[in-house]
Amino acid sequence: AQSVAQPEDQVNVAEGNPLTVKCTYSVSGNPYLFWYVQYPNRGLQFLLKYITGDNLVKGSYGFEAEFNKSQTSFHLKKPSALVSDSALYFCAVRDIRTNAGKSTFGDGTTLTVKP
Amino acid sequence: DTGVSQDPRHKITKRGQNVTFRCDPISEHNRLYWYRQTLGQGPEFLTYFQNEAQLEKSRLLSDRFSAERPKGSFSTLEIQRTEQGDSAMYLCASSSFRASGRNEQFFGPGTRLTVL
């Protein structure tokens, strides 16, 4: 079984400040981890993924995420938030062993960046 | 624009009616997924295809739901005898399968179903 928890429904930050959106996961084997962003009335857009290698992964729009195996976490970060980053963010996990492609998503975190 | 298209974007129907949604994936992608998303939740996996073969179905996919991908290109999701609980956003995604399912999925804009 695989699962994802996004413990914060909402994150509020001021423009220019660093942001963190938290994600923890559970899988039987090793994980593939993904972050997606969803804007109103739009489909999910891929931001970044961790497959293997460096624990710090860089993605689109200046976002990055750090894989921490001991804490089973994959927090999304950005050094300086923009108002345009305001959106709904989803973390997703896939178990490497199943090779099935089925992803399990968290319930999402709404990020609001205030000017 | 991700390249995955879904039709229709919105569907309003009466309880008990049948509805069918279509998804056109990115052309070179051989994997196609259906998810359901309700307000305040993340997408929930329904089923997926590799080429024309349906490889996995969620327990969420009751007997009233059926999905097809007859030629390994577009897919349809049909819901028979709709119920108010079927109201949700139905998302389609596609990906290319190269190695160990490591590729990200590209999502369409979704079909919002409202059952009255």
Give me some keywords for this one:
heterodimer, A: 115 residues, mainly beta, six-stranded mixed beta sheet, four-stranded antiparallel beta sheet, 52% strand, B: 116 residues, seven-stranded mixed beta sheet, 0% helix
How would you sum up this structure, described in words?
The complex is a heterodimer of chains A (about 120) and B (about 120). By secondary structure, chain A is mainly β. Helices cover about 0% and strands about 50% of the residues of chain A. Chain A contains no helices and twelve strands. In chain A, the strands form three sheets. In chain A, strands 2, 5, 6, 10, 11 and 12 form a six-stranded mixed sheet that branches. Chain A is globular. Chain A starts with a strand and ends with a strand. Chain B contains no helices and eleven strands. Chain B starts with a strand and ends with a strand. In chain B, strands 2, 4, 5, 6, 9, 10 and 11 form a seven-stranded mixed sheet that branches. A four-stranded antiparallel sheet of chain B has the order 1-3-8-7, with no helix packed on it. Chain B has about 120 residues and is mainly β. The radius of gyration of chain B is 13 Å and the shape is globular. The chains are: A mainly beta (about 120), B mainly beta (about 120). At the A-B interface, strand 5, strand 6, strand 10 and strand 11 of A face strand 4, strand 5, strand 9 and strand 10 of B.
Overall 3D geometry of chain B?
globular
Share of helix among residues of chain A? under 10%
* Oligomeric composition of the shown chains: heterodimer
Distance between the terminal alpha carbons of chain B, to the nearest Å? Answer: 31 Å
Which class do the helix and strand fractions of chain A yield? Answer: mainly beta
Rg of chain B, Cα atoms, Å = 13 Å
Unreliable stretches of chain B, pLDDT < 50, 5 or more residues? none
* Pattern of helices and strands of chain A: EEEEEEEEEEEE
* N→C terminal distance of chain A: 41 Å
- Shape field of chain A: globular
How many helices of chain A? The count is 0
User: How many strand elements of chain A?
Assistant: 12
Biggest interface and residues each: A-B, 27 and 29 residues
Helix content of chain B: under 10%
Task: Please report the total strand number of chain B as a whole number.
Answer: 11
Main beta-sheet annotation of chain A:
6 strands, mixed
